[in-house]
Amino acid sequence: MFNTGKRGSGSGPSLKPRHKSKGFLPLPATFNINSIRSFQRKNSTTIIITILLIWFIFNPLHLLNNIFKSNNYKDYPKPHPLTSIHSIETDSKYIYPPIEHAPLLKELTVHKLIKESRVRDSNFPEIEKNVITSLNSFDDPDPLIQKQKEDEENAISNLSVAKNAFKNHDKVIYKPSKNQNYPEIIVVSAVDFEKYTLDGLTKIVQNRVDYAHQQGYGVYIRWYQEFLPILNSLSFLQLKEKKKWVRIYCMRAAMHAFPESKWFWYLDEDGLIMDMNIDLDDYILASDSLRPVMQREQPIIPPNGAIKTYKNARPENIRLIITQSDAKVETESYIIKNDSVGRSIIEIWGNPLYLNYPSFPFGPDSALTHILQWHPFILSKTAIIPARNIASIHNTGNIGDASTDKLHYFDGDFAATWSSCESPARCEKILDTYDTKLKASIKKQ
Fold first, then answer.
1. Could you tell me if 373 and 307 are in contact, meaning their C-beta atoms sit under 8 angstroms apart?
2. Is residue 440 in some structural domain?
3. Which one of 30, 35, 305, 342 has the largest count of C-beta atoms within 10 Å of its C-beta?
4. Containing domain of residue 274, as a range?
5. Has residue 86 got a pLDDT over 50?
6. Cβ contacts of residue 389 below 8 Å, gap of 6+?
C-alpha cells in the first residue's frame, strides 16, 4: 500500500518539502531591533573613520606601488651647469662674457684657467692620462662663502677678476623678472680670445646683441676655452676640426641657460649677421617658410651620396636645420628646436664616443653625417637648406651669378661665414670687411 523503497531509488514518488526557503530560529524575546539600528546610526561615523584609518595604514595598493616604482625617479638630479652644481641667475637675456677681459685672459694663459692633472686609468694602471678640470670643482660648497672669497681676490688683482669671471660664466642662467617676456629664439656663439683681437671680439659680440635686440631674441655667448673640461685636451683647440666640437657643447649649455626658449641658432665666431631686419621665425622657422627651401632627396654627402633626405619630409616635423658646402655637411651655422627630440639630437651628437672617435676627419661635421646616414629617425627630423639662407660662404674668387649660386655670399644675404680662413690675421681681415659692409648698409636705411 505504501512505498517503502529508498528515496530516489526510482521505485515510487519521493516526498519533498513544500517550501524551498531555508528555515531560521525565532528571535529571542529580549531582542530589540530598534536598539541595533540606533547604535548603527550613532556610531556610523566612528566606524567609517576607523575603516579609513586601517586602510591608510595597511593600504595594499600603496605597498604594491612602492614595490614596482622606480627608485631612480625621485633621486633624479636637478639640471645643473657643466662644471658646477650651482647657478647664477640673471634677468638679462643677453648672456655673454666680459669681452674686455680678453687681454687679461691671454696674459693668464689657459693653463691658469683650468686644473691639469695626470691620473692612472683604473682599468689599466700602467696607463697614465691627462685630466682637465674646471676651477669650479674647487669652489666652497656654500655659494655665499665662495662669493666672499672671490670678492676678496678680485679686490687685489684684475687678473683675479678675469679668472673668476671666466670660471663663473658657466653658471649663468636666465631667470626673467615677472614683467619680462621669455625670448623664443636664442642666438648662440662661442668666441676664442686667443684667435681674435679685442676689437674683433667686440664686433662679433656686438653684432649678435644688436640683432637680438632688434628682433626681441636672446643671446648666449661663451669662450671656447671654457669647454676644455669636456674636450679634455688642450690640443683640441689647436686643431681646426677638433675645435669645432665646441659648437655642440655651447649649444647644449645655451639650452640649459634658456630652458623655455623654442629655437636656438648657433652662428660661429667666423660669421656675421648682415641683415638686422630679418625675423628668423618668419624667414625660416615657420612651416610655410621652411617648406620651399627644404632640399628633398638631397645626398647627405654631396654630390652623389647614397643616403638622401626624405622626399615626403614635413616642415612641421623638423627639429634640426643645417647647411652643406659642395662637399659635406657644415655646422658653422645650424638651428635646433628645444624639445625632447631636439635635445636628444644634441646629446647623441655630443656623445664622447663621437668626440674621441679618431676616424672623423671633420669632427662634429663627420659625426653628424654618420648619424644622419645610420639613424633614419633623426634624418626624418632634419632639413638641409641652401647655405645662403643662414650661412653664405665667403667668396674668395670671382663673384658668380647670384641667381644660381646657392653657396657664396652676395650683398643682401642674411649671414656671412668664413670658417675656412687660414690664419687669425686673415680671419680678422675678413671680419673687418663684412663689418664695414654691414655699417654701410645700415647707414643707407
1. yes
2. yes
3. 342
4. 88-94+170-444
5. yes
6. 283, 284, 293, 323, 414
